[in-house]
Protein backbone atom coordinates (compact mmCIF):
# COMPACT_ATOMS: atom_id res chain seq x y z
CA UNK A 1 0.00 0.00 0.00
CA UNK A 2 1.05 3.59 -0.55
CA UNK A 3 1.02 5.61 2.65
CA UNK A 4 -0.17 9.20 2.24
CA UNK A 5 1.76 11.60 4.41
CA UNK A 6 -0.14 14.27 6.22
CA UNK A 7 -3.83 14.54 7.10
CA UNK A 8 -4.18 17.71 5.05
CA UNK A 9 -3.02 15.98 1.90
CA UNK A 10 -5.36 13.06 2.56
CA UNK A 11 -8.33 15.37 3.04
CA UNK A 12 -7.50 17.23 -0.15
CA UNK A 13 -7.40 13.99 -2.13
CA UNK A 14 -10.80 12.98 -0.71
CA UNK A 15 -12.28 16.25 -1.92
CA UNK A 16 -10.78 15.78 -5.37
CA UNK A 17 -12.29 12.29 -5.63
CA UNK A 18 -15.65 13.48 -4.40
CA UNK A 19 -15.68 16.13 -7.12
CA UNK A 20 -16.16 13.33 -9.67
CA UNK A 21 -19.84 13.35 -8.68
CA UNK A 22 -20.45 16.97 -9.65
CA UNK A 23 -21.21 18.25 -13.11
CA UNK A 24 -18.23 20.58 -13.62
CA UNK A 25 -14.57 19.81 -12.95
CA UNK A 26 -12.84 22.08 -10.47
CA UNK A 27 -9.80 22.13 -12.72
CA UNK A 28 -9.45 24.04 -15.95
CA UNK A 29 -11.31 27.13 -17.10
CA UNK A 30 -14.67 28.74 -16.46
CA UNK A 31 -15.90 27.74 -19.92
CA UNK A 32 -19.36 26.25 -20.25
CA UNK A 33 -19.20 22.42 -20.14
CA UNK A 34 -19.71 21.94 -23.89
CA UNK A 35 -16.84 24.31 -24.68
CA UNK A 36 -14.59 22.80 -22.01
CA UNK A 37 -15.20 19.34 -23.47
CA UNK A 38 -14.20 20.57 -26.92
CA UNK A 39 -11.10 22.31 -25.53
CA UNK A 40 -9.93 19.19 -23.72
CA UNK A 41 -10.61 17.02 -26.78
CA UNK A 42 -8.43 19.30 -28.94
CA UNK A 43 -5.70 19.25 -26.28
CA UNK A 44 -5.89 15.44 -26.13
CA UNK A 45 -5.60 15.13 -29.90
CA UNK A 46 -2.55 17.41 -29.98
CA UNK A 47 -0.90 15.44 -27.16
CA UNK A 48 -1.51 12.11 -28.91
CA UNK A 49 -0.19 13.48 -32.22
CA UNK A 50 2.95 14.57 -30.35
CA UNK A 51 3.32 11.17 -28.60
CA UNK A 52 2.97 12.97 -25.27
CA UNK A 53 1.07 10.14 -23.61
CA UNK A 54 1.23 11.41 -20.04
CA UNK A 55 -0.31 14.72 -21.04
CA UNK A 56 -2.96 12.96 -23.15
CA UNK A 57 -3.85 10.78 -20.16
CA UNK A 58 -4.22 13.85 -17.96
CA UNK A 59 -6.63 15.52 -20.38
CA UNK A 60 -8.64 12.31 -20.72
CA UNK A 61 -8.87 12.00 -16.94
CA UNK A 62 -10.27 15.53 -16.77
CA UNK A 63 -12.74 14.70 -19.53
CA UNK A 64 -13.78 11.64 -17.59
CA UNK A 65 -14.65 13.87 -14.62
CA UNK A 66 -17.10 15.92 -16.71
CA UNK A 67 -20.70 14.78 -16.61
CA UNK A 68 -22.66 13.72 -19.67
CA UNK A 69 -22.09 11.70 -22.82
CA UNK A 70 -18.51 11.86 -24.07
CA UNK A 71 -17.70 12.83 -27.68
CA UNK A 72 -17.23 9.73 -29.79
CA UNK A 73 -13.52 10.49 -30.40
CA UNK A 74 -12.98 10.32 -26.62
CA UNK A 75 -13.18 6.53 -26.83
CA UNK A 76 -10.67 6.39 -29.70
CA UNK A 77 -8.12 8.48 -27.81
CA UNK A 78 -8.76 6.57 -24.57
CA UNK A 79 -8.03 3.37 -26.52
CA UNK A 80 -4.80 4.85 -27.90
CA UNK A 81 -3.56 5.87 -24.44
CA UNK A 82 -4.53 2.53 -22.90
CA UNK A 83 -2.80 0.63 -25.71
CA UNK A 84 0.35 2.71 -25.33
CA UNK A 85 0.29 1.97 -21.59
CA UNK A 86 -0.06 -1.76 -22.35
CA UNK A 87 -3.52 -2.03 -20.77
CA UNK A 88 -4.78 -4.21 -23.59
CA UNK A 89 -8.20 -5.16 -22.21
CA UNK A 90 -9.14 -1.54 -21.54
CA UNK A 91 -7.70 -0.43 -24.88
CA UNK A 92 -9.76 -2.98 -26.79
CA UNK A 93 -12.94 -2.07 -24.89
CA UNK A 94 -12.49 1.64 -25.62
CA UNK A 95 -11.74 1.08 -29.32
CA UNK A 96 -14.68 -1.28 -29.66
CA UNK A 97 -16.89 1.36 -28.06
CA UNK A 98 -15.61 3.89 -30.61
CA UNK A 99 -16.38 1.57 -33.55
CA UNK A 100 -19.87 0.84 -32.18
CA UNK A 101 -20.66 4.51 -31.66
CA UNK A 102 -18.98 6.04 -34.72
CA UNK A 103 -19.67 3.32 -37.27
CA UNK A 104 -17.91 3.03 -40.61
CA UNK A 105 -18.22 6.80 -41.17
CA UNK A 106 -16.03 7.60 -38.18
CA UNK A 107 -12.77 9.44 -38.88
CA UNK A 108 -10.78 6.78 -36.99
CA UNK A 109 -12.88 3.76 -37.99
CA UNK A 110 -10.27 1.86 -40.04
CA UNK A 111 -7.44 2.80 -37.68
CA UNK A 112 -9.47 1.49 -34.75
CA UNK A 113 -10.14 -1.83 -36.49
CA UNK A 114 -6.41 -2.22 -37.22
CA UNK A 115 -5.54 -1.47 -33.60
CA UNK A 116 -8.12 -3.95 -32.29
CA UNK A 117 -6.48 -6.61 -34.48
CA UNK A 118 -3.03 -5.61 -33.22
CA UNK A 119 -4.23 -5.80 -29.62
CA UNK A 120 -5.71 -9.24 -30.24
CA UNK A 121 -2.36 -10.46 -31.57
CA UNK A 122 -0.49 -8.88 -28.67
CA UNK A 123 -2.78 -10.59 -26.15
CA UNK A 124 -2.21 -13.97 -27.81
CA UNK A 125 1.55 -13.44 -27.77
CA UNK A 126 1.45 -12.42 -24.11
CA UNK A 127 -0.66 -15.46 -23.23
CA UNK A 128 1.75 -17.75 -25.06
CA UNK A 129 4.76 -16.26 -23.28
CA UNK A 130 3.02 -16.55 -19.90
CA UNK A 131 2.25 -20.21 -20.57
CA UNK A 132 5.87 -20.89 -21.59
CA UNK A 133 7.20 -19.19 -18.46
CA UNK A 134 4.75 -21.15 -16.32
CA UNK A 135 5.83 -24.43 -17.90
CA UNK A 136 9.54 -23.67 -17.41
CA UNK A 137 9.38 -22.31 -13.89
CA UNK A 138 9.60 -24.40 -10.76
CA UNK A 139 7.03 -24.07 -7.96
CA UNK A 140 8.11 -21.70 -5.21
CA UNK A 141 6.70 -21.28 -1.72
CA UNK A 142 6.35 -17.50 -1.91
CA UNK A 143 3.07 -15.59 -1.78
CA UNK A 144 3.39 -12.14 -3.35
CA UNK A 145 0.97 -9.27 -2.73
CA UNK A 146 -1.91 -9.60 -5.18
CA UNK A 147 -2.32 -6.93 -7.88
CA UNK A 148 0.71 -4.92 -6.72
CA UNK A 149 2.13 -4.61 -10.23
CA UNK A 150 -1.29 -3.84 -11.73
CA UNK A 151 -1.90 -1.09 -9.18
CA UNK A 152 1.50 0.42 -9.94
CA UNK A 153 0.65 0.46 -13.63
CA UNK A 154 -2.72 2.11 -12.95
CA UNK A 155 -1.12 4.86 -10.85
CA UNK A 156 1.30 5.63 -13.67
CA UNK A 157 -1.51 5.54 -16.22
CA UNK A 158 -3.78 7.93 -14.32
CA UNK A 159 -0.94 10.11 -12.97
CA UNK A 160 -1.93 9.71 -9.30
CA UNK A 161 -0.08 8.76 -6.13
CA UNK A 162 -2.40 6.36 -4.32
CA UNK A 163 -4.06 3.02 -5.02
CA UNK A 164 -7.41 4.49 -4.04
CA UNK A 165 -7.24 7.26 -6.62
CA UNK A 166 -6.05 4.90 -9.35
CA UNK A 167 -8.81 2.34 -8.73
CA UNK A 168 -11.50 5.04 -8.51
CA UNK A 169 -10.48 6.59 -11.83
CA UNK A 170 -10.16 3.18 -13.45
CA UNK A 171 -13.58 2.10 -12.22
CA UNK A 172 -15.16 5.26 -13.63
CA UNK A 173 -13.36 4.65 -16.92
CA UNK A 174 -14.91 1.18 -17.11
CA UNK A 175 -18.35 2.48 -16.12
CA UNK A 176 -18.18 5.11 -18.89
CA UNK A 177 -18.38 2.25 -21.38
CA UNK A 178 -20.91 0.10 -19.53
CA UNK A 179 -24.12 2.14 -19.50
CA UNK A 180 -27.39 0.24 -19.92
CA UNK A 181 -29.76 1.10 -22.78
CA UNK A 182 -33.31 -0.07 -23.28
CA UNK A 183 -32.80 -0.08 -27.05
CA UNK A 184 -29.52 -1.93 -27.58
CA UNK A 185 -29.79 -2.08 -31.35
CA UNK A 186 -28.98 1.57 -32.07
CA UNK A 187 -26.67 3.80 -30.02
CA UNK A 188 -27.31 7.51 -30.56
CA UNK A 189 -24.17 9.55 -30.03
CA UNK A 190 -26.06 12.56 -28.69
CA UNK A 191 -28.04 10.61 -26.09
CA UNK A 192 -26.53 9.27 -22.84
CA UNK A 193 -27.24 5.74 -21.65
CA UNK A 194 -30.57 5.15 -19.93
CA UNK A 195 -28.74 4.02 -16.76
CA UNK A 196 -25.17 5.05 -15.91
CA UNK A 197 -22.95 5.34 -12.84
CA UNK A 198 -20.06 7.26 -11.32
CA UNK A 199 -18.19 6.48 -8.11
CA UNK A 200 -16.17 8.44 -5.58
CA UNK A 201 -14.17 6.95 -2.71
CA UNK A 202 -13.70 8.55 0.71
CA UNK A 203 -11.69 7.32 3.68
CA UNK A 204 -13.99 4.41 4.50
CA UNK A 205 -16.89 4.54 2.08
CA UNK A 206 -17.73 4.44 -1.60
CA UNK A 207 -20.38 6.74 -3.07
CA UNK A 208 -22.16 5.47 -6.17
CA UNK A 209 -24.21 7.97 -8.14
CA UNK A 210 -26.83 6.47 -10.45
CA UNK A 211 -28.23 8.53 -13.34
CA UNK A 212 -31.47 7.40 -15.00
CA UNK A 213 -32.77 9.01 -18.16
CA UNK A 214 -36.54 9.38 -18.24
CA UNK A 215 -37.76 10.60 -21.60
CA UNK A 216 -35.70 12.90 -23.79
CA UNK A 217 -34.87 15.59 -21.23
CA UNK A 218 -35.34 14.45 -17.63
CA UNK A 219 -32.50 12.72 -15.77
CA UNK A 220 -32.87 11.63 -12.15
CA UNK A 221 -29.85 11.05 -9.91
CA UNK A 222 -29.55 9.01 -6.73
CA UNK A 223 -26.49 8.45 -4.56
CA UNK A 224 -25.86 5.29 -2.57
CA UNK A 225 -23.11 5.36 0.09
CA UNK A 226 -21.48 2.04 0.99
CA UNK A 227 -19.37 1.79 4.14
CA UNK A 228 -16.62 -0.72 3.42
CA UNK A 229 -15.97 -2.15 6.87
CA UNK A 230 -17.60 -5.50 7.54
CA UNK A 231 -18.41 -6.34 3.90
CA UNK A 232 -16.77 -8.81 1.55
CA UNK A 233 -14.44 -7.53 -1.19
CA UNK A 234 -15.56 -10.47 -3.33
CA UNK A 235 -18.14 -8.67 -5.48
CA UNK A 236 -20.54 -10.96 -7.33
CA UNK A 237 -21.85 -10.37 -10.85
CA UNK A 238 -23.76 -12.11 -13.61
CA UNK A 239 -25.42 -11.45 -16.97
CA UNK A 240 -28.95 -12.31 -18.08
CA UNK A 241 -30.53 -12.43 -21.52
CA UNK A 242 -34.17 -11.97 -20.47
CA UNK A 243 -36.33 -9.96 -20.23
CA UNK A 244 -33.63 -7.60 -21.59
CA UNK A 245 -29.92 -8.34 -22.02
CA UNK A 246 -28.37 -6.97 -18.82
CA UNK A 247 -25.35 -7.53 -16.60
CA UNK A 248 -25.68 -6.97 -12.85
CA UNK A 249 -23.20 -6.14 -10.11
CA UNK A 250 -24.49 -7.26 -6.72
CA UNK A 251 -24.29 -5.29 -3.49
CA UNK A 252 -21.62 -6.87 -1.23
CA UNK A 253 -23.68 -5.87 1.82
CA UNK A 254 -26.78 -7.98 1.16
CA UNK A 255 -26.51 -9.52 -2.31
CA UNK A 256 -29.16 -7.27 -3.85
CA UNK A 257 -28.77 -5.76 -7.31
CA UNK A 258 -26.48 -2.72 -7.19
CA UNK A 259 -25.42 -1.76 -10.74
CA UNK A 260 -27.42 -2.34 -13.93
CA UNK A 261 -25.00 -2.54 -16.87
CA UNK A 262 -24.99 -3.21 -20.58
CA UNK A 263 -24.64 -6.85 -21.74
CA UNK A 264 -20.86 -7.13 -21.92
CA UNK A 265 -19.67 -10.00 -19.71
CA UNK A 266 -15.96 -9.12 -19.81
CA UNK A 267 -16.66 -5.52 -18.86
CA UNK A 268 -19.01 -6.53 -16.04
CA UNK A 269 -16.35 -8.89 -14.67
CA UNK A 270 -13.71 -6.11 -14.81
CA UNK A 271 -16.05 -3.71 -12.98
CA UNK A 272 -16.85 -6.24 -10.25
CA UNK A 273 -13.14 -7.04 -9.82
CA UNK A 274 -12.12 -3.37 -9.69
CA UNK A 275 -14.87 -2.52 -7.20
CA UNK A 276 -13.73 -5.42 -5.01
CA UNK A 277 -10.12 -4.24 -5.14
CA UNK A 278 -11.22 -0.72 -4.19
CA UNK A 279 -13.16 -2.09 -1.20
CA UNK A 280 -10.12 -4.09 -0.11
CA UNK A 281 -7.84 -1.03 -0.36
CA UNK A 282 -10.22 1.11 1.72
CA UNK A 283 -10.49 -1.64 4.33
CA UNK A 284 -6.70 -1.61 4.81
CA UNK A 285 -5.67 2.06 4.57
CA UNK A 286 -2.32 1.51 6.24
Short description:
With 286 residues, the chain is of the alpha+beta class.
In words, what does this structure look like?
- Helix content is 49%, strand content 14%.
- With 286 residues, the protein is α+β, with helices and mostly antiparallel strands.
- The strands form 2 sheets. The protein has a 3-stranded antiparallel sheet with strand order 1-2-3. A 3-stranded antiparallel sheet has the order 4-5-6, with helices on one face.
- A hairpin with a 3-residue loop joins β1 (195-201) and β2 (205-214).
Order the strands across the largest sheet as they lie in space.
1-2-3
User: What structural class do the secondary elements suggest?
Assistant: alpha+beta
User: Which percent band covers the strand fraction?
Assistant: 5-15%
Major sheet: 3 strands, antiparallel
What is the number of strand segments?
Answer: 6
Helix content: 40-55%
| Count of discrete alpha- or pi-helical segments spanning 4 or more residues | 9
Mean pLDDT: 80
Order of helices and strands: HHHHHHHHEEEEEEH
Poorly predicted regions: 1-27, 137-146
| CA distance, first residue to last residue | 7 Å
- Cα radius of gyration in angstroms: 19 Å
Global outline: globular
Amino acid sequence: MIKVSGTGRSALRSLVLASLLVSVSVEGTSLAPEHEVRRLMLATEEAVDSDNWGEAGEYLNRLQGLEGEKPVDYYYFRGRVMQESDHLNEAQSALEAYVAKAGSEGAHYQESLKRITAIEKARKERSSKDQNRSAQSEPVAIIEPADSQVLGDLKRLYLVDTDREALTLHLNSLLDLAGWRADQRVVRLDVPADVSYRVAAGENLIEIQESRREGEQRITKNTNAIEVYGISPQVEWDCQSAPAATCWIYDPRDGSRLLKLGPDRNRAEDIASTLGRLIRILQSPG
